[in-house]
Specification:
Low-confidence stretches: none
Number of strands: 2
Number of domains: 1
Helix content: 10-25%
Strand content: 15-25%
Distance between the termini: 35 Å
Strand order of the largest sheet: 1-2
Number of helices: 2
Structural class: alpha+beta
Order of helices and strands: EHHE
């Protein structure tokens, strides 16, 4: 089971900024959203909010892996 830390998101933070701040890569937003399902409808935090932060995965899914086969290449 992955380790889970917590982080206080500040007023005005958004998920891509948190991903960049916590993982040095905005491509891990999906990891943060999966760990915080009750907060997934928040685009920008209105007030300081404690969020769960899983350990960074070893690799991130490549954008090309998400494309349909005819667009990969």
């Amino acid at each position: 089971m992955p380790r889970m830390k917590q982080h206080m998101a500040a007023q005005g933070d958004c998920w891509d900024l948190l991903s960049w701040r916590l993982y040095n890569d905005e491509g891990f937003i999906h990891i943060l959203l999966a760990a915080n399902p009750a907060l997934r409808n928040i685009v920008q935090f209105d007030e300081p909010t404690m969020i769960n932060v899983p350990d960074r995965p070893a690799t991130r899914t490549q954008t090309s892996d998400l494309l349909p086969p005819w667009k990969q290449g």
